[in-house]
Write a structure and sequence with these properties.
Low-confidence stretches: none
Order of helices and strands: HHHHEHEHHHHHHHH
Strand content: under 5%
Organism: Rubellimicrobium aerolatum
Pfam families: BPD_transp_2 (PF02653)
CATH topology: ABC transporter involved in vitamin B12 uptake, BtuC
Membrane topology: Multi-pass membrane protein
Number of strands: 2
Keywords: Cell membrane, Membrane, Transmembrane, Transmembrane helix
Distance between the termini: 64 Å
Number of helices: 13
Mean pLDDT: 87
Helix content: 55-70%
InterPro entries: ABC_transp_permease
Strand order of the largest sheet: 1-2
Length: 310
């Protein structure tokens, strides 16, 4: 085993890239759950965004336009979810799981013509002067624009939820939708907008995988990233800044296991590979329990259907 072949600088730089798709999807899901809706269809929305973004990028020759198409694809599937759970009041857990399966099947079908096709290159945002700083330059200032967009969204979501009036109203809806409705707030409208935002973010995360991480179409490219995003939201106790740390942690695990494999480490690669998914299972078990939600300070109305006539 030769650990000297692992560069800490490159490891940290790769960590930020690996964490970006999970961070984008988790940020969207955080807003959705803050509004009181549990969306287990993140995986399906991510892979729908992945194929929509890839197809758009190939058709236009622009990776940046591909991300626009990805956001639209993820949002479209999320609106279907919104209609089913908000107006038809279907079970949120069952509907989310069904849309995940639907998204995986749709992406597999739509992706057939793109097997083996490479995506247009994504431009890197090499920040002058800052990118030349030793150590910090390669880690922080030599990434593509979507990495910085994800970081900006963390700050934007934090400000929205804690400083903006609309964000405070959205949190009130998530804590007690009946009380919010009694005060005159449009519960269904707010939840619809939150779900659309979550779907768009999931689509962006999926497109980052198909256009940047693996710049070609591969069936099942998300490989459970949506489930990890769900776990990170709970792990972060529905707080954006903690969510950033959680995304870096999960991204770091995935990058570390690849580096250890390259360094011929005696630890079985499968052990490191399965760690994020084991944590995902544990937190999903926690959130399925009422006591678990209470201990984690989950939104009070999370997963509960709302009917204006009650």
């Amino acid at each position: 085993m030769d650990l000297t072949s692992i560069s800490p600088v490159l490891l940290l730089a790769s960590l930020m890239v690996a964490a970006t798709p999970i961070l984008l999807a988790a940020l969207g899901e955080l807003v959705v759950e803050r509004a009181g809706v549990l969306n287990l269809g993140v995986e399906g929305m991510m892979i729908t965004g992945a194929i929509a973004g890839f197809a758009t990028a190939v058709a236009t020759g622009s990776a940046l336009l591909g991300f626009v198409g990805a956001a639209a694809g993820g949002a479209a599937l999320s609106l279907l979810f919104a209609v089913l759970v908000l107006w038809l009041r279907s079970n949120q857990v069952a509907t989310g799981l069904a849309l995940t399966l639907f998204g995986l099947g749709l992406a597999s079908l739509a992706g057939q013509p793109y097997n083996g096709v490479r995506a247009p290159p994504m431009p890197e945002l090499d920040i002058p002067l800052l990118s030349g700083i030793p150590v910090l330059g390669p880690i922080l200032f030599r990434h593509d624009p979507v990495v910085y967009l994800a970081l900006a969204l963390v700050g934007g979501v934090w400000w929205f939820l804690h400083r903006a009036r609309a964000g405070l109203v959205l949190r009130a809806v998530g804590e007690n939708h009946d009380a919010a409705h009694a005060l005159g707030y449009k519960v269904l409208r707010l939840r619809l907008l939150a779900i659309a935002f979550g779907g768009a973010c999931a689509g962006l995360g999926g497109a980052y995988l198909s256009l940047v991480r693996v710049p070609q179409w591969t069936e099942g490219i998300t490989a459970g990233a949506g489930w990890i995003a769900l776990a990170i939201v709970v792990f972060a106790s529905w707080r954006p800044l903690r969510l950033l740390l959680g995304a870096w942690l999960f991204g770091g695990i995935s990058v570390l296991q690849l580096n250890l494999q390259a360094a011929n480490a005696p630890i079985p690669v499968e052990v490191l590979s399965m760690t994020p998914y084991l944590v995902t299972i544990l937190v999903l078990v926690l959130i399925s329990s009422g006591r678990g939600r209470a201990r984690l300070a989950a939104p009070g109305s999370l997963g509960q259907p709302f009917h204006a006539s009650r």
